Amino acid sequence: MLKGKKILLGVCGSIAAYKSALLVRQLIKAEAEVQVILTASASAFITPLTLATLSKRPVLTEFVKDGTGVWNNHVDLGLWADAMVVAPASANTVAKMANGFCDNLLSATYLSARCAVFVAPAMDLDMYQHPAVQHNFRKLQGYGNSIIEAGYGELASGLVGQGRMAEPEEIVQVLQNFFSGDRKIV
């Protein structure tokens, strides 16, 4: 179902960013094309080299490539994609997306995207349950985006509760369901 599909993967700063490598690997195995956009804070958790190697494409992080003046065109990226997945989605990026802020390549691309958007949040349980974050999830859903609910379990803080990013297999299944016409979120 994913063969030839163009997937934009936004990776935000979260300990769950390590799962993005597994997600890229599974998407490539399913014969999707994957373009990764990494936020500045995400690179503290996972390297662009890892994701570029797995996706077989340069990882994009800024509007301009390496000071050369070559532009990473967020409009073209938004038009290129068949689906956009933000995984992990931090509370900060969720707030930017919900409120139309675009101070980085990922949020600008989101605002330019004409494709389906899937958001897989990852954050500590108190952040996840905070009324402002829940409000932002509802706003994103109101715009037609899909939230892939965070799982329940042990979190990086040592607390136990909802906030774990969905497993890569679950995210791939959501995309397969979407492209097969089954709009059900796992």
Keywords:
186 residues, alpha/beta, two-stranded antiparallel sheet, Rossmann fold, globular, 9 strands, five-stranded parallel β-sheet, 40% helix
Structure overview:
With 186 residues, this protein is of the alpha/beta class. The chain has one domain: Rossmann fold, CATH 3.40.50. It is 40% helix and 22% strand. The chain has 8 helices and 9 strands. The chain has helices spanning 18-29, 48-55, 74-80, 91-99, 105-112, 125-129, 131-142, 168-180; strands at residues 6-11, 33-38, 64-65, 70-71, 83-89, 116-121, 146-147, 151-154, 160-164. The protein has a 5-stranded parallel β-sheet, sandwiched between helices. The protein is globular and about 45 Å long. The two termini are 16 Å apart. The relative contact order is 0.18. This is Flavoprotein. It comes from Pontibacter rugosus. InterPro entries: Flavin_trans-like, Flavoprotein. Pfam families: Flavoprotein. Residues 5-176 form the Flavoprotein domain.
CATH class: Alpha Beta
Query: Which second-level CATH architecture applies?
Result: 3-Layer(aba) Sandwich
Uncertain segments:
none
Look up the CATH topology: Rossmann fold
Strand ordering within the main sheet = 2-1-5-6-7
Q: What kind of assembly state do the chains in view correspond to?
A: single chain
Inertia-based shape: globular
Quickly count the helices: 8
Taken in chain order, the helices and strands follow as EHEHEEHEHHEHHEEEH
Total E-strand runs: 9
Radius of gyration: 15 Å
If you average the pLDDT, what whole number results?
92
Provide the structure class.
alpha/beta
Going by CATH, the homologous superfamily would be Flavin prenyltransferase-like
Give the biggest beta sheet.
5 strands, parallel
Q: Assign a percent range to the helix content.
A: 25-40%
Distance between the termini: 16 Å
Strand content: 15-25%
Whole-number total of structural domains:
1
